[in-house]
Every structure is written in structure tokens, then in C-alpha cells.
Amino acid sequence: MQKIITINLALPFHVGNVNCYLIETDAGYFLIDTGAANKRLELQNELESAGCKPGNLKLIIITHGDFDHTGNAAYLRKTFASKIIMHVDDRGMAERADMFWNRSKDNAFFRKLAPILIGFGKADRFTPDLLIEDEYDLSGFGFQAIIISIAGHSKGSIGILTASGDLFCGDLLENTEKPALNAIMDNPLEANVSVEKLRNLAINTVYPGHGKPFPMEQIIIRSYRL
Predict the structure, then answer these.
(1) String of b and e for 51-79 (b: at least 16 CB within 10 Å)?
(2) How far apart are the first and last CA of the chain?
(3) Residue ranges of the domains in the chain?
(4) Which of 51, 83, 95, 150 is buried deepest, with most CB atoms within 10 A?
(5) 44-48, 92-96, 113-117 — which one is most confidently predicted on average?
(6) CA–CA gap between residue 153 and residue 140 (Å, rounded)
(7) How confident is the model over 147-162, as pLDDT tens digits?
(8) Is the pLDDT reported for residue 111 higher than 60?
(9) CA distances from 32 to 57, 60, 105, 215 (A)
(10) How many whole angstroms separate alpha carbon 107 and alpha carbon 164?
């Protein structure tokens, strides 16, 4: 049994929304991304309303290190007695509260402004419990899915592909207006490689970090070109 619950949280200053995905399985619950700290209480209420309580949240999976995806990870780990997994190439974002830790395109002004806007304070920093490099099988936790590397938005961006063909893609792809590459891309060449990788996988539905789920063939039709 596997049930997907989408938790859509508003970002500070009305700059948009971000999706967190709670996966209910026979083994327990798995949370993909955690939103920004400004909606912590709302997220916790959504989790508990779905039956996810301290002790049965098996794993927090972070698709990449941006503040709007990691903002509640440290708090939830402590509150729900869970573990956090993410890609090793984005770990410095979480440990240093620095979205540009490993990005090639830097912006000194936004580097200082982002933590203020998103609310990622020292208490929200964390070191992941599990670090992956390329592909990781989650079946040992009771979640029939694999983690795959899909760099582009950030060097350590990952996707979670379930056995039933659901892909949780973080911010590689979005669907705020139509299915497309995320508007913010650190490395377009790596993003292109990641899209080609997705072409060869058995994917039915894509669950993006921003926007509504969509059939995989829609992004294949509109495949990214430099």
C-alpha cells in the first residue's frame, strides 16, 4: 500500500508555494522535502492529521539544499525521531545555511538576503544522517523506491522514483504554468543530462517541488534544449 499526500505550503512574502509530499506505506511514513520554516506549525498539523506522528516517520528525504525544501528538516528530525537523507553535494547548504555553497552562479546580495526572507536560522541547520552520491535503494526502509541523481538546479539535486512510476523531482522540473524545466537552473548542461536520464526510466507521473503533478510525457514533448 502506498498513498501520496501533497502538502502545499506558502512561502514568505507571497513569493509562491512549495510542495512537500508525505508517502504513507505499510512500513510507516516518508516525507519528501519540508518547506520553509514560516509554515512549520501548518506542516506539523498536516502530518499529524494524516496519521504521521513521532515514531512512525521513517525518513525525511531532501531533494536539494534550498531553504524552502530544508527549512523544517532539523525540527522534524528532533520532534518525530526521524532521520534525514540527502545528496552529499548539497550537504553544505544545510550545514551552513548557504544556498550558494556549491553553485557556480553566485549572487552576493541574494546570498545575504535569502536566509532573512526564508527564515533559515542557525537552529534550522543540520547535518544529514545519510548521504548518497548517485543511486540509493529505499526498500530497506520499507519504501519501494530508488533515489537517483538529477543535477541541474543544484549539483546535489535528487529524484525519488517509486516502483509504481511516480517521480518526485524536487526543482529540476516545475509546473507553475506548464510542465517545464525550473526557471532557476544552476547548470543547464547537467539539467539536460538529467532530463535525458529521465527519458529512459519508467515514469508515469511527475510530482514537482512547485506546481501540480503532471504526466511524464508532457515534459518529454517539451524536452529541454540549450
Answers:
(1) ebeeeebbbbbbbbbbbbbbbbbbbbbee
(2) 40
(3) 2-163
(4) 150
(5) 44-48
(6) 28
(7) 999 999 999 999 999 9
(8) no
(9) 11, 6, 26, 19
(10) 40
Cβ distance 59 to 89 under 8 Å?
no
| 108 pLDDT above the threshold of 60 | no
CATH 3.60.15.10 fits 2-163, yes or no: yes
Closest alpha carbon to 181 in 204, 140, 211: 211
For residue 55, what pLDDT is reported? 94
- Mapping DSSP onto H, E and C, the string for the chain reads CEEEEEEEEECHHHCCEEEEEEEEECCEEEEECCCCHHHHHHHHHHHHHCCCCCCCEEEEECCCCCHHHHCCHHHHHHHHCCCEEEEHHHHHHHHHCCCCCCCCCCCHHHHHHHHHHHCCCHHHCCCCCEEECCCEECHHHCCCEEEEECCCCCCCCEEEEECCCEEEEECCEEECCCCEECCCCCCHHHHHHHHHHHHCCCCCEEEECCECCEEHHHHHHCCCCC
| pLDDT digits 0-9 by tens, 59-86 | 999 999 999 999 999 999 999 999 999 9
Nearest to 88 by CA among 123, 122, 136: 136
